[in-house]
Amino acid sequence: MTTAQQKEQTASNQNRDDAEIRKFEALASRWWDPNSEFKPLHEINPLRMGFINRKVNPAGQRCIDIGCGGGILSEALAHQGADVTAIDLAEASLAVARLHQLESGLDIRYENIAAEAMADREAGQYDIVTCLEMLEHVPDPAAIVSACAKLVRPGGHIFLSTINRNPKAWLFAIVGAEYVLNLLPRGTHDYAHFIKPSELAFWCRQAGLQQGELTGMTYNPLTKKYRLENDVSVNYLVHYTKPDEEKAV
């Protein structure tokens, strides 16, 4: 094993939760079933892409999707003309993504590698970095944020999303979504891993990023519709940029 491979393996082992990976690998075959456990991801993906499109046109941009799973967001970015690299630590999910890629015909580079290792290898190589619905599933989310900042070029864009940590988020994201409405399998989320916007903002400032728009994502159980609005008490998305060094001078 080369020194570079040893570094990649170390980074992967340091910031991975094997129980979380097994959880998603067990469901991997159903990633592209819009009526499966991944139905919420299919339904919110147009909202996520709409948020991204308001900030930057992905066409012709080099993008990396961190924690890509079965490739739902990755394919949406590629459909808009982005040059997409997508990474995940769950090999079964990547296998499904590659299989669906044969059907879609999209040119996406999928790789089983940790974000930190990728940042060491391809620092500053991406115009757009996305890490959506993933930070709450790793032991050290701050390290992922740091990797995102390292991967993006000066002047580039970073999009993050996760779940707030407060009593309402516990009630809606766990009790409501997993036990009452059955939108997600029970045990999908661990409340202790939820992240307050202030915590995420602190990690991003430490990484030298500038915050842009912060918006919430809500679900109406009566209409069964998701929407973006100002309420960030449960799910939220945020846009960051990396300062352009030349402009700063």
Automatic annotation (TrEMBL):
<feature type="binding site">
    <location>
        <position position="132"/>
    </location>
    <ligand>
        <name>S-adenosyl-L-methionine</name>
    </ligand>
</feature>
<dbReference type="GO" id="GO:0032259">
    <property type="term" value="P:methylation"/>
</dbReference>
<protein>
    <recommendedName>
        <fullName>Ubiquinone biosynthesis O-methyltransferase</fullName>
        <ecNumber>2.1.1.222</ecNumber>
        <ecNumber>2.1.1.64</ecNumber>
    </recommendedName>
</protein>
<keyword id="KW-0831">Ubiquinone biosynthesis</keyword>
<dbReference type="InterPro" id="IPR029063">
    <property type="entry name" value="SAM-dependent_MTases_sf"/>
</dbReference>
<feature type="binding site">
    <location>
        <position position="88"/>
    </location>
    <ligand>
        <name>S-adenosyl-L-methionine</name>
    </ligand>
</feature>
<dbReference type="GO" id="GO:0102208">
    <property type="term" value="F:2-polyprenyl-6-hydroxyphenol methylase activity"/>
</dbReference>
<comment type="pathway">
    <text>Cofactor biosynthesis; ubiquinone biosynthesis.</text>
</comment>
<comment type="similarity">
    <text>Belongs to the methyltransferase superfamily. UbiG/COQ3 family.</text>
</comment>
<keyword id="KW-0830">Ubiquinone</keyword>
<keyword id="KW-0949">S-adenosyl-L-methionine</keyword>
<comment type="function">
    <text>O-methyltransferase that catalyzes the 2 O-methylation steps in the ubiquinone biosynthetic pathway.</text>
</comment>
<feature type="binding site">
    <location>
        <position position="67"/>
    </location>
    <ligand>
        <name>S-adenosyl-L-methionine</name>
    </ligand>
</feature>
<dbReference type="Pfam" id="PF13489">
    <property type="entry name" value="Methyltransf_23"/>
</dbReference>
<keyword id="KW-0808">Transferase</keyword>
<dbReference type="GO" id="GO:0010420">
    <property type="term" value="F:polyprenyldihydroxybenzoate methyltransferase activity"/>
</dbReference>
<dbReference type="InterPro" id="IPR010233">
    <property type="entry name" value="UbiG_MeTrfase"/>
</dbReference>
<dbReference type="GO" id="GO:0061542">
    <property type="term" value="F:3-demethylubiquinol 3-O-methyltransferase activity"/>
</dbReference>
<keyword id="KW-0489">Methyltransferase</keyword>
<feature type="binding site">
    <location>
        <position position="48"/>
    </location>
    <ligand>
        <name>S-adenosyl-L-methionine</name>
    </ligand>
</feature>
